[in-house]
Amino acid sequence: MLVERKSEPLLEFRQIDKTFHSGTVSELKLFDHFDLSVPQGRFVCIIGSNGSGKTTLLNLLCGGETPDAGNIFLGGREITREPEHVRSRRIGRVFQDPSLGTCPQLTILENLSLADRKGKRYGLSRGVSRKKIDEYRSRLELLKLGLEDQLDLPVANLSGGQRQALALLICTMTPIDLLILDEHTAALDPSSSENVMELTRRFVREKRLTALMVTHNLRFALAYGDRLVMMHRGKAVLDVCDGEKNALKIHDLTERFNEISVEDGNDV
Amino acid sequence: MALDVFLGLLTGVLQEGFVYGIMALGIYVTYQVLNFPDLSVEGTFPLGSCVAGVMIASGLNPWLACMAAFACGAAAGGVTGLLHVKLHITDLLSGILVMTALWSVNLAVTSGSAVTPFYNQPTIYTSGPAALISDSHNSLRALVVAFISCLFVKLLLDEYLKTKSGLLLRAAGNNPRYVVSLGKDPGNMKILGLMLGNGLAALSGCILCQREESADIYSGTGMIVLGLAAVIVGVNIFSGIRFLRSTTAVILGAVLYRGVLVAALQMGLPTNYMKLLMAVLLTVVLVAYKTVPTGRRKKHVSRTEV
Ligand SMILES: Nc1ncnc2c1ncn2[C@@H]1O[C@H](COP(=O)(O)OP(=O)(O)O)[C@@H](O)[C@H]1O
Ligand SMILES: [Mg+2]
Hints:
- The complex is a heterodimer of chains A (268) and B (306).
- Chain A has 268 residues and is of the alpha/beta class.
- In chain A, 32% of the residues lie in helices and 23% in strands.
- In chain A, strand 4 (69-74) and strand 5 form a beta hairpin.
- Chain B has a two-stranded antiparallel sheet.
- The longest helix of chain B has 32 residues, at 2-33.
- Classes of the chains: A alpha/beta (268), B mainly alpha (306).
- The A-B interface holds A 83-86, 88-89, 92-93, 95, 99-107, 110, 113-115, 117-119, 121-128, 152, 154, 156, 171 and B 160, 162-168, 170-171, 174-175, 177-186, 295, 299-300, 302-303.
- Magnesium ion binds next to helix 1 of chain A.
């Protein structure tokens, strides 16, 4: 695959500090001069034990949290203090909770129509344009879940796997700079997980997206993406890409995890 | 004779039910669509009355008064929204603050009088298209005016909820995170919805007081209870009927609630106990429908419904 590697990374965390409960006994200095940069077109898998800072990292990026110090750049523009909804215009995100990525009460068609306007004005014109239905149908066919025949069904009636697939479709429908997947298969049964992961791979490839995927599934972390980052206590303790990543085995990762757990004083 | 009395009562119930139905539609927008328990309605309903009363008393066009009432209600609802969204005051408190402040505002509007009469001035019940029906059919005429006003508001609201802005409003109530991911601020949609809901409440107050030809600053008491009962009864009882939109169900809920109150008064309940009965009825409704799981609740508006 031809990916243009610009000298400037698409995404950059620069010298990020983040402390929770600062000034109290439970003070937790999670990130201390944290750096991470992701070039255009990379598909990065992020793994790490609970509490290692994966979710906080995504929250800093999407605007749910603000760093105490440091800067975040996306596409050459600083976004450190941009409001969450403004950043969202350039970012697509699929959450762990399948009910968050779509609007349950609205129908599939209404959800798609809303998503189609992302970043534009939501005025008094018809919410659902009939002219676009064929286009939406053919997009839904890509999911191979039969959703194209259920356009008028409220999304609340769909299964978790169907919703995640739809959420994935929705957030890649309009042009985005970055796709964020926050344990988006964790709430699904094994076969839906596989299906959603395959779709993820396809969308990322076809739309040449830059993606950041947090996962607890080590197999997925090895099988997908072209870079792997392991987090521990707010640091990237392992960061490999391409050939080096392909050479990794599950066994290597579990061993790293065990070393970390021992450092933390946990029983393995 | 008994039939005459019954028909008279029925006309009255329907007429008032439709007028209160407009306010119930406002509460439907804030409570059901936006998921926002908005108490400012108790202040915006009489605000609509007072604005209309003062305008009509000074000889202004009653239709203009309706528009002004809507605008004033919307402005007050906007304040509730700003308090909640920008100053992060809880939804209930924001409503209470605005409701309390409106008491003084309403008095300022009426220059300090609790009741503003405007007898024999043209109202929407007597002038314009309503004049086509003769004075001898007074109460029927009032019913027709109330029905058409309510229907007009309902159809407009249905249409609005189908626009892009309307869909986004529904999404803001259902899943604010989704609105954020679409690049919009759900807070702004909340403010918009509160403006719409309180605009409708004020419009309802304005239309109600024109029937009585006097605006009463106390008329807001109990409006939340009435509106909530209409919404909950409407959405739950009538949701079993296919092809019936939630907005229609809410109006039927308002009529039904009004009917039960009038029936109780007819059966000898002293007027002083009216608000008590209103509260008891809502309590019954709340308890009766608490068990309905949200998944079974009626979805909002779909194309095939009335
Ligand atoms: N909003 C918050 N307030 C206080 N502590 C937090 C907050 N968010 C995260 N933390 C703490 O930061 C650490 C990292 O959390 P998180 O980023 O959720 O880890 P992960 O997603 O890798 O499991 C945890 O110890 C957690 O308790
Ligand atoms: Mg997490």
